Amino acid sequence: MNHRDIRKLISAMVDGELDDAETKRVNEHMASCPSCTRYARTLRMVSADIRSVSPVSLPDTFPLSVLRALRAEEAESRIWMPVEAFARRFVVGLGGVVVLFVALATTIRPEEPVVAEPYLTGEMSDSTATRVLLTKEAPTKNDLLLAVVSPE
Amino acid sequence: MNYAESDDRSLVQAFQNGDERAFEEIVRRYQRQVANVIYTTLGNPQDVPDLAQEVFLKTYRSLGRITVEHSLFSWIYRIAVNVAIDELRRRKIRRMTSFDFSGDAEGKEPKFRDPVTPDDQLASSERREQVWKALRKLSETSRTVLLLREYEELSYREIGDILHISEQAVKSRIFRAREELKELLKDYFEERP
User: What DSSP string describes A68-121?
Assistant: First the structure.
């Protein structure tokens, strides 16, 4: 048994938690070990010091003040109960509306007007350039220049 | 019903059946222990009444959930430890986020009983203050077992029942707590003849 084990037993002995055989063993060890004897004395001293801290005491009326606080708390919660219930319903309702709105917005989209681009539908453009170029069987360089500089 | 002579289980049962006087007796029975936990954690006697009240309000609200396997003392003790530690954390946060260096968060040191012998009054009083400070520096686990042992004077078996651990575990924890305390107090206790 090492020193640490003995000291663990000393700690229990200070608390009166050792049986006779263990107490005898510890006392025999301490008889030849001044360090462990000091250790036991230190533990007893610390124990006495801890116990010497004056205990705080609450007044005899403390239980009544707790009950008073409980009643005050209950009374307050009774006042706020209807408001709280309304607020809870309001939040739930609002949440429902938001969810509904989001659901509608994601599922129902307004139909976008289909813009038929003339060049996609194959319809002839009526720009000046087209008119100039299409009326010429063999457009000259000047026709091309005219088509380019002509306004729409 | 004789409330003062009823055991914890009967009181809890009466409370769960709507008897408020049973709760009043529960408060009366455990107010000292709750006050001690708060006092030793925060170190300021002025904090005790308000926080003790908070502990019992929480107990009142949670007592409906307590079952026969739970020890009432252990139940209340846990709430008290949590309330005290939460308050300590709040104060640390407040101290970190403000420029208040008045030292209020540390709490005032407690008054000590007069030493038995007047000769070593000064040394003894100083040592007790150091013991007190060291006690507050212990980990929660260590402080709890030590308080249950030193203040409540409970046996290892009783402490084990409260903390739901074996007697051997109590023995080890108390030993560890004392080792921690001894380390913190080595200037006062080491190598003294």
Answer: HHHHHHHHHHHHHHHHHHHHHHHHHHHHHHHHHHHHHHHH--PPPPP---HHHH
Q: Does B65 touch chain A (CB under 8 A)?
A: no
A42/B132 touch (CB, cutoff 8 Å), yes or no: no
CB contact under 8 A, A56 and B193: no
Percent of chain B with pLDDT over 90: 35
The whole-number pLDDT of residue B102 equals 41
- What domains, with CATH codes, occur in chain B? 1-105 (1.10.1740.10), 109-193 (1.10.10.10)
Residue in A37, A47, A58 to test binding to B, most B beta-carbons within 10 Å? A58
Given this model, what pLDDT does residue A3 score? 82
Q: Please indicate whether, in this complex, the C-beta atoms of A56 and B36 are within 8 angstroms of each other.
A: yes
Rounded to a whole number of angstroms, the distance from the CA of A98 to the nearest CA of chain B is 35
Q: If you search the block for the tokens 């989209």, which residue do you land on?
A: A109
Tally of CA atoms within 13 A in the half-sphere of A77 that contains its CB: 6
State the ipTM, two decimals. 0.71
> What does pTM read for this prediction?
0.63
User: Using one digit for the tens of pLDDT, what is the confidence trace for B75-116?
Assistant: 998 899 899 989 988 887 777 665 444 444 444 555 444 444
